[in-house]
Amino acid sequence: MKDQYAVVGNPIGHTKSPLIHSLFAQETRQDMSYTAIEGPLEPRNAFQDVVRTFASRGGKGMNVTAPFKLEAFAMANDRSERATLAGAANTVKFEDGRLLADNFDGIGLVRDIEVNLRLPMVGKRVLMLGAGGAARGALLPFLAAHPAELVVANRDVSKVDALVASVAGRGPLIACGYSDLERLGRFDLVVNATSASLTGDLPPVPPSVFSPDGTAYELAYGKGLTPFLRLARNAGVHGVTDGVGMLVEQAAEAFAWWRGVRPQTSAVIDRLAIPLD
Ligand code: ATR
Predict the structure, then answer these.
(1) What residue spans define the domains of the chain?
(2) Coil, strand or helix: which one is 212?
(3) Ligand 1: which of 90, 155, 157, 246 to mutate, judged by most atoms within 8 Å of the beta carbon?
(4) How does pLDDT run across 65-80, given as a tens digit for each residue?
(5) Domain spanning 3-103+245-272: which CATH class is it, in words?
(6) 69 an active-site residue?
(7) Residues 150 and 143 sit within 8 Å (Cβ to Cβ)
(8) For residue 265, how far is its CA from the centre of ligand 1 (angstroms)?
(9) pLDDT digits (tens, 9 = 90+) for 95-147
């Protein structure tokens, strides 16, 4: 039987993961299957049963998406440091009866920025908006890229204070509220890691944070020119991008972890990209 993989989430109809992983498998000549599973929202622990059943039937690994990332993390036997900081897993692997959890969202984002967009973060001023799961997952990979400064802004300042305290001493990190941003100048890279775009909302970010030569990165994928990207464009930013590259790069990390071979990503990104306007 082929090695079995799946993505589990709810809803799951929109997922691009089976397409991405089948393209990776074709390119790297891996004999595997990859399906999408709609995880049960209730009763409690039903999600864990789905994961255990998949593993017991010979499953090798799963991608995990909303709303199960926290539960997947919690049920793991072993967890990577970046998954631990995020408190969430987006990928699991079944090995010798154990469930291993990792989180490749942040590293996928960094690879997209540094490799695909050719924007090395070293020495740059970087602003991240949000302090939820997406921002938490990106924090350590961002610091590992050695920006001159990483400012993290959130509406609920206590949340961002706690997040920054959890990685104190790991790099030049500043926590703040949106009202502090006016006096913090321009940034080379502004990343919207809030969930505001999912509801068509705009985080209360002042246009003064953008620099025309800089980049505005929207984590959401397939939402077109979101209010955040529109604000950046109106502020004169040429480099506006959505999260399609991150989506494919995090998948490539998972694939490499499972299969021991790294797929090419650029053709897959081109295939999935949706014009912003
Ligand atoms: P995710 O896992 O997608 O990051 P989450 O953990 O619920 O989701 O976190 C959502 C993030 O988006 C939070 O940082 C939230 O800000 P608060 O902590 O202050 O609530 C942020 N967010 C959601 N809607 C927003 C909006 N309209 N403007 C600004 N920030 C928003």
Answers:
(1) 3-103+245-272, 119-242
(2) strand
(3) 155
(4) 999 999 999 999 999 9
(5) alpha beta
(6) yes
(7) yes
(8) 29
(9) 999 999 999 999 999 999 999 999 999 999 999 999 998 998 899 999 999 99
